[in-house]
Amino acid sequence: MAAVYKRELKSYFQSMTGYVFIAFMVLFIGIYFMAYNMMSGYPYFSYTLSGMVTIIMIGIPVLTMRSFADDRKTKTDQLLLTSPVSVGKIVLGKYLSMITVFAVPVVLSCLCPLIIKMNGTAHLKADYAAILAFFFLGCVYIAIGMFISSLTESQIIAAVGTFGIILLLLLWPNLVGFLPTTALGSLIGFFLLWSLAVLIVNRITSHTGLAVILEAAGIIVMVGLYLIKKGLFDRALTNVMEKVAITDVFQNFATHYIFDLGGLITYISIILLLVFLTVQSIEKRRWS
Amino acid sequence: MKIEQEERELIEVKNLVKDYGGHLAVDHLNFTIQDGKIYGFLGPNGAGKSTTMNIITGYIGATEGDVWINGHNILEDPEEAKRCIGYLPELPPLYVDMTVKEQLNFAAELKKIPKKDMEEEVLKVMNLAKLTDVSGRLIRNLSKGYRQRVGLAQAVLGFPPVIILDEPTVGLDPKQIIEIRDTIRELGQKHTVILSSHILSEVSAVCDHVLIIDRGRLIASDTPENLERQMADASGMELLIKGEEAQIRDILDTIPQAADVTVKESGEEAVKKVTFRLAGTGEEGVDIREIIFFAFADNRLPILSMHVNKASLEEVFLELTADAESEDKELNADLESENTDTENKKSDGEEEL
């Protein structure tokens, strides 16, 4: 793992990607910081970070697009996968190297609350908590980007795909408002989601019987519940889908000044899930 | 003790199948690799050589079947199994943004070579592959030949018991080919080397044992000499004789070993080009060339040149792969066999994935 980590990190700073990413981040942190905190005199650095959430949407895909797509294209994955190193360690090594690059501008931004303090009132605790949440949010995005990069050979597809998904997550809280809130609407929504999940399982396992059983069981359970206790389905779809809005956790830190420990645990769980999925996607590719 | 080691099975491949969505790239392959020899994987393009090597090294999974490396199953105990193998794929897996030394250090770390031995091990393989002059250069700036050598050095690094080389001489100039072959021979003294090739002379020049693969099936496995001997029937003679065709044929009719006689104009006046196949061995200890010489000398027909064509590995190979093809054609309907070409092309594409 250490070998992969070191190589990846070195390569980020040999290919300029690392420098460009850091410069890009620092530049925009600077711009937002100047506009919000210095010029408008807003005492919370977290406000600047809220602005940065849209900026990392562009930065993160650049950082992650290469991670696995490039290895696959240049066939250097043959070296990694035929070495006595497990796939999990390769994935972790790469993931940690990207996090390290991302950590550089985040650590640099830690100076900003101090600058605010030098000029007047600062809310150091709230600001540093927000920086922490921002870092974790970035780590989630990096995990998403890494997973998408492991699905394709093309860096462009990886970057665009990652950008699309992060944008979707950003717009998610607004999109949820368009979902039906009636019980029947929720039932149909769950049915569609379940069918999609079954379809994915079917694609992965190539087991038609299993998929049919799962689909049938899902329908029976859902329709059964609907008939027995209709009230359960009121607004249920919206409530469930709202949970996917991962930027909410960061907003708790940045705009409501709440230390949302549960939210951070959610972030870590999502990261672990995505790392696991990346390992699975690489293993799966070797078998098909 | 020595004998025991030589008899040891280092790699065992059992009933290996790789199915690329309906196309069998590897079709129930079985073989064992013994310690301390140089093995050659021979087959036309798309025969399944690379796929087989990729499965043995654990790069891709097999649809069916098992691979044991030094007693470790590649699926159940992948890390131990991979530790026993050094692999140079068709395209050397090198990071172009690293220098030769960095690449080899990275590979050494991946192979879990202890830190204290790393420097020495890397130097050893750089000397072996003659890379010391370019150790500080970026791989991006190296020629194909040098990249191949870095790939070879990387495969040899740590001196694993098995070294697998997929078409190690493709795209190299003749001098580099000779150098790489010498290196392989040198390695073969202490290691088991498996190399794949579609170049026959290479295999017959370097290998102790040849495995011929066609359409994912093993169609022959023997020493190059034995394979050539099996084909003794295919050897023949080519003569230039001054004389009339009828007379030449009459003389050859008296010699039982000469079969399938053809007589052609050679281009020179009154000189005929005669070729025939050698059938059977004839009397013990009598050279067929003597018999031919005296037969024509007695009839006062001068032999201007005489040449015995021995079956080369090339012919063995063509014969064997052609056999497999004709069997296939008999088995399959005509329509299907017409599709094989496109299938082969498809398999090429898929192997590159």
Task: Give a short overview.
The complex is a heterodimer of chains A (288) and B (353). Chain A has 288 residues and is mostly helical.
Shape of chain B: elongated
Low-confidence spans of chain B: 1-6, 333-353
Total helix count of chain B?
13
Summarize the amount of helix of chain B as a percent range: 40-55%
User: Which class do the helix and strand fractions of chain A yield?
Assistant: mainly alpha
Helical residues, percent of chain A: over 70%
Distance between the termini of chain B: 44 Å
Give the overall pLDDT of chain A as a whole number.
91
Write out the strand line-up for the largest beta sheet of chain B, numbering strands in chain order: 6-7-8-3-9-10
The major beta sheet of chain B can be summarized as:
6 strands, mixed
Low-pLDDT residue spans of chain A: none
Radius of gyration of chain A: 22 Å
Count of individual helical segments of chain A: 14
Bulk shape of chain A: flat
Report the portion of residues of chain B in β strands: 25-35%
Please outline the helices and strands:
The complex is a heterodimer of chains A (288) and B (353).
Chain A lengths: L1 H13 L2 H23 L5 H20 L1 H9 L2 H5 L5 H23 L1 H8 L5 H26 L5 H22 L6 H23 L2 H21 L7 H7 L4 H8 L6 H27 L1
Helix pairs in contact in A: 1-6, 2-3, 2-6, 3-8, 3-9, 3-13, 6-8, 6-14, 8-9, 8-13, 8-14, 10-11
Chain B lengths: L1 H6 L1 E12 L2 E12 L3 E5 L6 H8 L7 E6 L2 E2 L4 H6 L1 E4 L11 H11 L4 H14 L15 H13 L5 E5 L7 H15 L3 E6 L2 H7 L2 E6 L2 E6 L1 H7 L5 E7 L2 H9 L4 E8 L5 E8 L9 H11 L4 E7 L3 H19 L2 H19 L1
Parallel strand pairs in B: 3-8, 3-9, 6-7, 7-8
Antiparallel strand pairs in B: 1-2, 1-4, 4-5, 9-10, 11-13, 11-14, 12-13
